[in-house]
Design goal:
The complex is a heterodimer of chains A (about 230) and B (about 240). Chain A is globular, with a radius of gyration of 20 Å. In chain A, helix 1 runs antiparallel to helix 7, helix 6 runs antiparallel to helix 7 and helix 7 runs antiparallel to helix 10. Chain A has ten helices and no strands. Helices cover about 80% and strands about 0% of the residues of chain A. With about 230 residues, chain A is mainly alpha-helical. Chain B is an alpha/beta fold and about 240 residues long. Chain B has a six-stranded mixed β-sheet. Chain B has a five-stranded mixed β-sheet with strand order 7-6-8-5-9, sandwiched between helices. In chain B, helix 3 runs parallel beside helix 4. Chains A and B meet through helix 3 and helix 9 of A and helix 3, helix 4, strand 7 and helix 8 of B.
Chain lengths: ~230, ~240
């Protein structure tokens, strides 16, 4: 790829893959959690909200350390998942996706919850009264109304996933081809005497991806408004 | 309007109080030091009786901050390469090797005398060997030099977990995330959760040196005061004359 050596291009590809997958996997989860927090009252709601928002408030290194303790090879959750499904997060690209999801989820849930809350439940109730089944109410009434909020949350989540550094490097290290993402590659380039040119090339690519993401989201938002 | 006026007046009062208070505080000297010195350097500063604050970081990050005008009085790096880089850029004129270090293989269980590629892979059991990032972290490049001297680098390379600094590699082993790791002897001594499995011979990698350079008269005095501090030897560093 332009201006990038093989290792740097691999980091860019890995970053795009990890951020896209993390955003796609988070989307239904964030939508469900946002709906739950906006439309339902249940015991422990405050706690659930706090747990979702925690990665936003904690230093990313702390989040990464907690992930390492819980999802590492010897962590209680990591051991169980490996035994049950053969799913390994430790020092694996799947761990980078998990870290990106955890860091991006609060931003996605927050934006989507606000969108749910801005939609009057009266419209949904009216549709239900007129005999629409609940899935039809959601897809034909609720979803079009909250779409701008969902888009905003998705863009925020993708941005966070792409830029995530502290939690990822603490949780799954920086293994070329597995967990060495764009921010880690830039950080490493800056740690080597004379590595500035490599860092600069990677930085330009990071800016290009960010600008492209913003332009695409603006275009989508304009199409939705029509 | 009145409320805004009151708010602005309160703000001005706070600003004035801050300005008045600032000169009362004597400015402590600022030390920029490699992350692997954390702990021992704090103790050494306390023993020297000097008034200094320490900013820890990776050697590369620290060197670049100094090159861009960071107000440090004394800089102690874990990498001669970065000190050479500072000297070439004209940011540092004289540097001395303050400390030396040793590399160890850490993990849990029985010692691993004379390890080779097969023995290391067997002990890893599908897990990973934690080291500092091979290009970015001095401890990582020393670890690579040792593995290369064993002829084990190619075999081990797909089984590495490379951390952003040497303490990160220590954390991977201490939390059980990685079965083995290569860190400085001083790091291994700092964490009771890990054991030294093998002392890596000093001739298996370039000499481990911590070069120091004073950037101000206060820094020169501080460097002299730190030289004799017993905390370095107590932490396992080799004190160089």
């Amino acid at each position: 790829m332009m201006g990038l050596d093989a290792g740097a291009a691999e980091a860019l590809r890995l970053s795009l893959w990890v951020a896209s997958l993390a955003t796609l996997l988070s989307l239904p989860l964030a939508l469900g959690l946002a709906w739950l927090l906006a439309r339902r009252d249940f015991p422990g709601k405050g706690l659930l909200n706090a747990a979702i928002l925690l990665p936003l408030v904690l230093p990313p290194v702390v989040t990464g350390y907690l992930l390492l303790l819980a999802f590492g090879r010897t962590g209680p959750v990591g051991r169980t998942l490996e035994a049950a499904f053969g799913l390994v997060f430790a020092f694996n690209w799947t761990g980078a996706v998990l870290a990106a999801m955890v860091m991006g989820l609060p931003l996605m849930v927050r934006a989507m919850r606000l969108a749910f809350e801005a939609t009057p439940p009266g419209l949904e109730e009216a549709a239900a009264t007129l005999g629409a089944p609940s899935w039809a109410v959601f897809t034909t009434v609720t979803l079009p109304l909250i779409a701008p909020g969902v888009l905003a949350g998705t863009v925020l989540g993708f941005a966070k996933a792409l830029g995530e550094f502290g939690a990822t490097i603490t949780f799954v290290a920086a293994i070329p081809g597995q967990t060495l993402t764009l921010p880690s590659a830039i950080y490493n380039a800056l740690q080597v005497p004379g590595g500035e040119a490599r860092a600069a090339a990677l930085t330009l690519w990071a800016i290009a991806v960010a600008v492209a993401a913003v332009l695409i989201s603006e275009w989508l938002a304009r199409r939705m408004a029509r | 309007m009145t409320r805004l006026g009151t708010y602005l007046r309160a703000l001005a009062l706070v600003a004035a109080a801050l300005c008045a208070a600032a000169p009362l505080r004597a400015e402590p000297a600022v030390i920029f030091a490699a992350a692997s010195l954390a702990g021992a350097l704090d103790d050494a500063v306390a023993q020297s009786g000097a008034d200094a604050v320490i900013s820890y970081g990776g050697s590369g990050a620290l060197a670049q901050q100094i090159a861009r005008g960071a107000p440090a009085d004394l800089v102690i790096l874990a990498s001669p390469d970065w000190m050479d880089w500072l000297r070439a850029g004209g940011h540092v004129t004289v540097s001395t090797d303050l400390l030396g270090g040793r590399l160890v293989l850490i993990g849990t269980g029985a010692p691993l005398p004379d390890p080779d590629a097969a023995a290391l892979l067997a002990r890893l059991g599908g897990g990973r060997l934690a080291i500092g990032q091979r290009d970015a972290v001095p401890a990582g490049s020393y670890a690579r030099a040792w593995l290369q001297s064993l002829g084990a680098w190619e075999a081990l390379r797909p089984h590495l977990a490379e951390a952003p600094n040497v303490r990160g590699a220590l954390t991977f082993v201490a939390t059980g995330a990685a079965p083995l790791g290569v860190v400085y002897a001083t790091d291994a001594a700092a964490d009771p959760r890990v054991q030294v499995l093998y002392d890596i011979p000093a001739d298996a990698h370039p000499p481990i040196r911590y070069p120091a350079a004073a950037l101000s008269p206060a820094g020169t005095a501080l460097l002299e005061a730190l030289r004799g501090a017993p905390a370095f030897a107590a932490a396992g560093f080799e004190v160089l004359e």
